[in-house]
């Protein structure tokens, strides 16, 4: 009698293990399909300047678009997620030093990465937020490339990206934005140069950098990194709707909100928003007020 129960229990456990293995096999298969998909895109080439004013403009854009959060302030590359369950994610060394970009990484390769989210094999980059950058105008994208290419070579070995089983399952289910090439309109014709200034229109253009976490609607919700704190609603329906422009600027430069909360840089990257100029923060404020 007792041994029969044991036998049944053993079979149930064994069955459960087999089901988990099959499910994981299916997710691994689907994951490989996403990663190995090859895209046929037309990369529209644009001139990349080399003058010091463009490089300075590119440096500012590198800072406010958050490139440094994942590639390091000196472009040497950086591990930005190291989670025992999800995996290890690291931004590439963007210099032409050892372990960085190969000499063959030309302007077209830069544009393919930034505007299409694709690597040299025309397969999707992982987690690189190219969907946000794909909407930047020619002027800004060329300035960023100019800045990156003007930086000194740094020898820093590449850190291979590892996506662990739970990370694979969540990315296949669309819970982690791991495959930027799938989120991009590859036919989009970007403007040569948008009009910059303290206006809601320009704020809308800049807000592309907020949508990855605050969602395209800017109403927030679940954190894009599973287990992270919920993302605030930053439309006029949230706290921001009650803040003055000066309070908004202080919050985005120091992380201190008028409600007395200290935002943690690891949750809300205010060291990035601290680099925005007054005009840029005013533009964002005016745009958020319209939402
Ligand atoms: C959220 C993190 C993140 C941010 C922000 C980010 N990147 Fe990346 N980037 C990555 C990761 C991760 C990779 C490597 C992806 C891979 O190898 O699949 C990458 C790859 C790249 C590549 C392609 C390198 C290659 O070998 O093909 C370029 C170029 C690049 N990033 C430039 C930039 C620039 C410029 C910015 C800012 C405008 C930026 N990135 C912002 C995470 C990020
Ligand atoms: C990497 C993800 C991420 C990005 C990118 C991001 N945010 Fe946030 N933000 C958060 C999270 C998470 C919170 C909530 C933090 C908390 O509750 O402690 C937050 C909170 C805020 C708050 C405070 C809201 C309140 O009610 O107190 C403001 C304002 C804000 N973000 C504005 C922005 C703007 C503007 C941008 C784009 C320029 C931006 N954020 C980009 C993740 C992000």
From TrEMBL:
Keyword Metal-binding among UniProt keywords: yes
**From what superkingdom does this record's organism come?**
Bacteria
Assigned keywords, A-Z: Heme, Iron, Membrane, Metal-binding, Transmembrane, Transmembrane helix
TM segments?
12-31
Q: Tell me the ranges covered by the Cytochrome c domain, including all copies.
A: 53-152, 198-291
User: InterPro entries, per this entry?
Assistant: Cyt_c-like_dom (IPR009056), Cyt_c-like_dom_sf (IPR036909), Cytochrome_c-type_DH (IPR051459)
Q: Which SUPFAM superfamilies match?
A: Cytochrome c
Write the protein's name. Answer: C-type cytochrome
